[in-house]
Structure formats: C-alpha cells, structure tokens
Amino acid sequence: MTPSERLDATFTALADPTRRAILARLAGGDASVLELTKPFAMSQPAISKHLKVLERAGLISRGRDAQRRPCRIEAKPLADISGWLEEYRQLWEGNFRRLDALLEELQSPEKKASPRKGKRP
Amino acid sequence: MTKTLSVTTPSDREIALTRVFDAPRALIFDALTKPALVKRWMLGNMGATMPVCEIDLRVGGAYRYVWRSPDGSEMTMTGIYREVARPERLVNTQRLEVAWLPGESVLTTTLVESGGKTTFTSTTLYDSRETRDKLLKSGMEAGASASYDRLAELLAAKEV
C-alpha cells in the first residue's frame, strides 16, 4: 500500500464506532476475539469481521497462537493520523495566536509609537 | 470564555473552526480583509511568508494569496467574495492551486461580538465528496478527532 492508500484504509477502519471501541479496549492490553466480543452486543463473527478491517488497515496485529490469536493494537497508523489532525489544528492555532497579537497591537493606543511599552514581554 | 480553538464537522461536507478573540469584531473583519493585516497572521506554522496578498473586497471581487515557505516553494489560494457585510459576515469561495486538492470550497465567516469579545466561526463547505475525501486523507476532517485524540492518549500512555 502507498502511504495515501494506507491512510485511506486507516480512516475507513476508524469510521466505525465499534472498531474505535475495539481499539480503545486494545489500548488497555491485548485481547482475544472472545474477550473482545464480551463488551459488545454482537456475535463473534461480526467482531471478527471488524477485526479483519482493523488488521488490513494495520491498526492491529494478530498473535500466532492458533487457538487464541490475541489482538494487539499497532500504534503507527494512529500516530500518522493524529499527526495529520494535529498539523491542521496547529496551523490554525498558530494563525490565531498571531491574530491575537495583531489585534492587541491594533487596540493599543500607542500602536504608532515604535518602541513597545515595557509592560509586555 | 476561553481562547480554545474548536474544530467541528457540522455536516458531511463541512468543517468549522470556532475561536474567541479579545477584540471588537470590526477589527477582526479588517484583519481578515486588509492585505497589510492578513499578511501579518495568516501564515500557517511552517515559517511561511505571504509575499502576495491581493484583495478586491466587494461582492464578485477576487482575492489571491501566495504563501512562500522557507525552502522557496509556493502555494496559491484564490477565490471570489460572495457576501461582504462588515463587520459581521464574509462569504468567499476558495481554491487551493495544488494538484492534490481539486475543487472549490465556500468559506463562511461570522463574527459575533459580546462584551468586547468576538466569537469567530468559519465554516468551510466543500464542493464534493471527492474534495472532502482528499481532505480526510490530509487530516482536515476533524469530526472524529476527539476519538482519535483519546485513542492517541491511550496509546501514548501505553507506550511509556
């Protein structure tokens, strides 16, 4: 998968509340399908289907133990996503902080005087 | 009222930013529409400058922003004003001239003043599912950000 396809798969996987809940559960520790099925009002095959989507997106991995195949959360795709979201938020926070400073300057009665008042850092 | 930036998705095709500022709304309106002021703050966070900022502030008038990043690469945004109602409302189209994001969006900015403070809300309405999906990929879809943030926190805690 290209990074863009990977991101698509991650977003698709995260677009479902059950899958997000599964990830939240796995963030607390590895769990088997059976353990994951318990908190949800869903059949085991339904949960398994969700797990497959998560696995394809690289959000979880499955253990080798054929019986239990414990699910483990994988941090990388989520870190990529929160990185993107964080970038967007930071971009606007940066813009708005500069706007704060500009608005303060525009409202200052001494805005024309070049040396700034000693009061402010 | 805090100065916390809120990012929400009012609908499938929209993203909204809300933020409170310690200033009368007329000043904020000017900061959004006067080139000398726009150039001072609408710069992103990568150390970019805005060498070109042209604004023809009237209904049907065009604007053009060019950002230049420290590595010399440039990005251009253009659009047309659809509503100009100083100091409370501004509606304009916007088109980023980059290959990865085709299509046009409509930005509606409202400024509500109360007790010397102004609540700024800008809502971007994307033209198509395709555009929205492109933005999804680039992280601009923030509707589920709260869930992602919580997950990220959990993951960070787990990794310690």
In short:
The complex is a heterodimer of chains A (121) and B (160). Chain A is built from five helices and two strands; from the N terminus they run ααααββα.
Describe it.
The complex is a heterodimer of chains A (121) and B (160). Chain A is built from five helices and two strands. With 121 residues, chain A is mainly α. Chain A is elongated, with a radius of gyration of 24 Å. Chain B has 160 residues and is α+β, with helices and mostly antiparallel strands. Chain B is 25% helix and 41% strand. The relative contact order of chain B is 0.18. The interface between A and B is large, with 40 and 39 residues.
Distance between the termini of chain B: 34 Å
Q: Helix amount of chain B, in percent?
A: 25-40%
Termini of chain A, distance in Å? 50 Å
* Strand-pairing-aware structural class of chain B: alpha+beta
Largest sheet of chain B: 8 strands, antiparallel
Topology of this protein?
The complex is a heterodimer of chains A (121) and B (160).
Chain A: H1 3-14, H2 17-27, H3 33-37, H4 44-56, E1 60-62, E2 71-73, H5 75-107
Antiparallel strand pairs in A: 1-2
Chain B: E1 6-8, E2 14-21, H1 25-33, H2 35-41, E3 49-55, E4 62-68, E5 74-85, E6 89-96, E7 105-114, E8 117-126, H3 129-137, H4 145-159
Antiparallel strand pairs in B: 1-2, 2-8, 3-4, 4-5, 5-6, 6-7, 7-8
